[in-house]
Amino acid sequence: MRLPARFPRRFLYLRCGSAALGFLVLLATTACVDRFTSLEVRGPEVTALVLSPGQVPSLSLGRSVLLQVVGRDQSGAPVTAPPVTWSTSDPTVVKIQLDKNTSRYATITALNAGASTVTAKSGAITTSITILVHPPGPVATVYVVGGDDIAAGRTMQLTVLQADSQGVLLTTPVPTFSSSDSTIARVSPAGLVTGLRQGKATVTATSNGKSGSRSLTVSAPEHAFLWTAALGLTDLGTLPGFVISRAVAVSAAGHVAGSLFTIDDSLSQGFVRAPGASGAMRGLAGFPGGRGSAAFGVNSAGQVIGSATTVTGVTHAVLWRESGALVDLGTADADEASVALGINDAGQVVGNTRRGAQTRPFIWTETDGMRVIAGIGNGTAFAINQSGTVVGESSNRPFTWTPGSSPATLAVLTADIGGRATAIGNGGAIVGTSRGCVPYSYYDDCDDEDHPAMWSVTSVPTDLRGARILSALGINSARQVAGIGVNGRAILWSAASGARDLGTLPGRDRSTASAINDAGMVVGSSFNP
Question: Which of 43, 58, 77 finishes a domain?
Answer without folding.
Answer: 43
